[in-house]
Each structure stands twice: as structure tokens, then as C-alpha cells.
Design brief:
endonuclease, single chain, Rossmann fold, 9 helices, metal-binding, ERCC4_domain, rod-shaped, Mms4/EME1/EME2, ERCC4 domain-containing protein, alpha/beta
């Protein structure tokens, strides 16, 4: 179809306008794409920054935890070293006898506690003085033997496991001692003790012996016709302990309190030997 020059101009104008619109659309789409790419890159950058910050915080926490662990480990090693030095110092003191009173143990035959009036006073006095005791049973009735024990906290630092002190006391009530003397069996008793404890020093401790004898003498005097009791030769027998035996001695106590005090004092003396 033929067109006039005017129509051609109109068509060219429309085409030019259409081309301009297409160019603008393309430019807009390119701009939108660029913006999206920029936003994507920005988001990625923020994500990387956030990740880097979290990693740094994690590393800082790990370093802090490691420092705290090292600090605790150093403190534990320091405390362990201080405890070791303390134990070494305690061991040296113990070896020099500084803790002797804490280490000595009075091992008391149960018949001293169960029979007679001396047991209660004796144990009470031992406790009052802060000493240690153990109730046990021995072949020789009414005996006390002492031992040195290693304190528990020092037991791993020394090969010494404790030992018995070579000293034994026989605690007799007045009537028991008098009966042995009257029956003529006291010397046999001494020999039996020495056989059992051949290297020990032996001490016979009596309670209220002279008071008992005096009381029986008064009763005999009042009842001369009815009394069959005869005064035992206690002085003679006690004298023979020093003349006929080696390492055998005696102690006459006026009452339970004196007997308990004597045993406590003896315990302290044996600890310092």
C-alpha cells in the first residue's frame, strides 16, 4: 500500500518512540538487575562480617577458657606443692618426736574397764588430756600396753608402720593383789608376765592397797574370834620385785584418781622416750 510523505513521517515518529521506550525498558531492567546484584553482594558482605565477628568471639571465648584452665591448673599445682611441703615438714617434726603425744596409744585390757572402779576414772582422764586409747583383750589380764602409731596423713610418706613400746603395766585392785600374795602365786604371776613380755619393763599398779589392808585389819581386830583373814606380806613381796627380778617395779596408788593420773603421766613419759 502506497503512503504519502506525511504518513511516512508519522510512522517513523511512532517507531522512534517505540525504540525509545524499549531502550528505557532495557535500561530499567539493567538497573534493577544491577541493584539486585548490589543488594546480593551487600547481603553477602554483611553475612561474612557477621560470620567473622562470631568466629572472633568464639576464638576469644576459647582463649579465655584456656587461660582460666591454665590458671586453675597452676593454682592446683601450687596448692599440691604447698601440701607436699607441709607434709614433709610434719614428717620431720614427727620423726623428731614433736607429735609423740598425738601418736602414742594406750591399749587397755577390757577387764580393767569391765571390772573394778578404776576403768571409768582412767579413760576419762586419758580423754581429758587429749591422749588416745584403745580397748582390747590381752592374754595377761588387766594389762596396759602402749604403742606408737603413724598419723594417717603421714602414713604414705614413711615406711614406719608403728610399734609397741616395751613397757607393760598390770593394774590390780587391792583385793586381787592381796589374794595373789596370800595364795603365794604372785611371784608366779610376775614370771608369767616376764615370759610373755621378755624384753619389756613391767610395772604393777595397785589401787587402794594399803587402805584395803588397814580396813581388813580393823575388821579383824573387832572380830578376833570370827575372822580368818591374815595380813598378807605385801611389803615383803613388793621389795622382792626389785631384788629378785629385772625391770620389774610397782606403784601404790591411794585411789582411782591418783591411779589415772599416774597412767596419764606414764603415757606422756613413754611418748617422749
Amino acid at each position: 500500500m502506497d503512503t504519502t510523505p506525511l504518513q511516512d513521517d508519522v510512522l517513523e515518529g511512532k517507531n522512534a518512540s517505540r525504540n525509545v521506550q524499549l531502550d528505557e525498558t532495557d535500561d530499567s531492567m539493567m538497573a534493577d538487575g544491577a541493584n539486585m546484584n548490589a543488594k546480593r553482594k551487600t547481603g553477602q558482605g554483611i553475612g561474612k562480617k557477621r560470620q567473622t565477628k562470631e568466629e572472633k568471639m568464639k576464638l576469644m571465648e576459647e582463649k579465655k577458657l584456656k587461660r582460666e584452665q591454665e590458671k586453675l591448673q597452676k593454682a592446683a599445682l601450687k596448692a599440691e606443692e604447698a601440701e607436699r611441703k607441709k607434709l614433709d615438714k610434719e614428717k620431720k617434726k614427727w620423726e623428731k618426736g614433736k607429735f609423740a603425744l598425738k601418736s602414742i596409744v594406750a591399749e587397755v585390757d577390757r577387764r580393767i574397764v569391765e571390772q573394778g572402779s578404776t576403768g571409768g576414772h582412767l579413760l576419762s582422764r586419758i580423754v581429758e588430756k587429749g591422749l588416745s586409747f584403745r580397748i582390747t583383750s590381752y592374754p595377761i589380764e588387766r594389762s596396759i600396753i602402749w604403742s606408737m602409731a603413724v598419723p594417717e596423713e603421714l602414713s604414705e610418706l614413711t615406711s614406719f608402720q608403728g610399734t609397741e613400746i616395751q613397757y607393760v603395766s598390770i593394774v590390780l585392785e587391792a583385793d586381787e593383789f592381796s589374794s595373789l600374795v596370800t595364795a603365794g602365786s604372785f611371784m608366779d604371776h610376775v614370771s608369767r608376765v616376764q615370759t610373755r613380755y621378755s624384753t619389756y619393763t613391767v610395772c604393777y599398779i595397785t589401787n587402794r592397797l594399803m587402805s584395803y589392808i588397814h580396813k581388813r585389819e580393823q575388821e579383824q581386830y573387832k572380830n578376833l574370834d570370827k575372822s580368818s583373814w591374815r595380813r598378807p606380806p605385801v611389803e615383803e613381796v613388793l621389795a622382792k620385785l626389785t631384788t629378785h627380778f629385772c625391770r620389774v617395779r610397782s606403784r601404790l596408788c591411794v585411789d582411782e584418781a591418783e591411779l589415772a593420773e599416774h597412767v596419764v603421766g606414764l603415757t606422756s613419759s613413754l611418748a617422749s622416750c
